[in-house]
User: What shape does this take?
Amino acid sequence: MAYSLVSKKSGRTYYLHSKDVTLKNTGKVQTIYYFAPDVRAEAIDAIPEGYKVDENPRTGLPYLRKG
Assistant: This one.
């Protein structure tokens, strides 16, 4: 089951996803985390260790931040 969050501002449900991307300049592989309004193949079940969920007060979109 994908980690989900309901936006306080819009009331929409968002699901947490992760994806490994290769950086163009260095060629290093980095994991990115993002929220989407639907469940996709990259959906993950929990918040990664060391991160917490916050919400943009203007748009209501959730995001992860370290801390």
About this structure: The longest strand covers residues 13-22.
